[in-house]
Amino acid sequence: MSLQRATFRGDASAHEFQEVLKRFKSEGCNLLVTGAVSEDVTKHATRTLLGSPDADRKRVVALSDTRDENVSERLPPGVDPDGPDVWLIDQQAHQRSVPAAARSGDLDLPAGVESQDDLTRLREEIVAAIDFFDETTGGLSPADLRLSVASLDRLTHEHETSDVVRFARSVGAMVLGVRGMAHYHLPRPDDDDLVDRLSSLFDARIELRKRDGLPTEQRWHVPEYGQTTDWVRL
Predict the structure, then answer these.
(1) Is residue 203 classed as helix, strand or coil in its secondary structure?
(2) Which of 162, 171, 192, 234 is the most exposed, having the fewest neighbouring CB atoms within 10 Å of its CB?
(3) Residue 4 CB contacts under 8 Å (≥ 6 apart), including other chains
(4) Which architecture, in CATH terms, is 25-233?
């Protein structure tokens, strides 16, 4: 992610924003990704936020509304969707791809029952994935866990906003408990009312935009500082 030169607006130095990023990586964070962008831009952001393919990361991709036939397109280039460090959840297709050790070990994979709503099932899948990686590593190191959830938009269409809030709080607490980094897509304009209602649940927002003929850009909104960065390339 091209954030080395990113600065808060009006700040001549990148130091303050870089300190925020360091803290997010050391303590964990939950990020809301906004912007009325195409699915291709969303995938690009997901691949970037899931970390360099050369880094030792445990990646969980949870999809609630995908129409893709190839979920692995959301993974960084070279990351094997069937690898031991990847857990994919495709709720619409009622499919999951989990590490072989999770299938053959003592882990109780969520079975999903008719009485459960899809928010509960999705939460249980994510919790199972985080627990598995935390246990098999003997405790995850900071920023090792990378979670992508796409998207909150569908979930808020099919559930009360209060239920989605509880879902995000619960999953977010699990992520912070292992000092992971999670991002949740909400492909709406950053000034949308729903963005405003959900923003307080997250440590920061990453707003995306794609203008004709130009690379995809991002800017970060960090409520703790009441600051927004300049636009930089994703």
Answers:
(1) coil
(2) 162
(3) 14, 18
(4) 3-Layer(aba) Sandwich (3.40)
